[in-house]
Amino acid sequence: MTEERVQCAHLEPIPAEECRRLLATHHLGRLAVLVDDAPRIFPVNYGLVDDGIVFCSGGGNKVEAARRGRVAFEIDDSDPLAHTGWSVVAVGSVRELDQRAVGRIPVAPWCGGDHEHWLRIDIDEISGRRIVRHIP
Fold first, then answer.
1. How far is Cα 15 from Cα 114, in angstroms, rounded to an integer?
2. Is the dihedral of CA 9, 12, 17, 22 positive or negative?
């Protein structure tokens, strides 16, 4: 990284309300869980429903690890030519949704397969950062 680039960009926090707005405008994020005491990250398509992150999945490591504890969920965007971007991270606990509620969820799986588990991350913490570039 050149000296000029370091001097021309800085990080700014994104307020919580804007973080939630950004979550509502995107549909693909990354779920971070612990599997056998090792971090794993899974891409999932999702929807923001009543201030919770909702996604579906088949069984397996992702679902079991998510049920055991707190998880992190991340979305981001960047412009590599302008050297700008942002990232939002939500942390919370996961619960499986009642099958009666599934019909009202505006999320559809992007790929085929078994999607019997509908999960919701109840957000406890949310934060974001934006890379801001200043032209000297």
1. 37
2. positive
Residue 106 has a pLDDT of 64
pLDDT of residue 19: 97
* Yes or no: domain 11-133 corresponds to CATH 2.30.110.10: yes
Task: Please report, as a single letter, which amino acid is at residue 1.
Answer: M
Per-residue pLDDT at 6: 45
Residues in the chain, pLDDT under 50: 1, 3-6
Residues in the chain: 136
Q: What is the pTM of this model?
A: 0.84
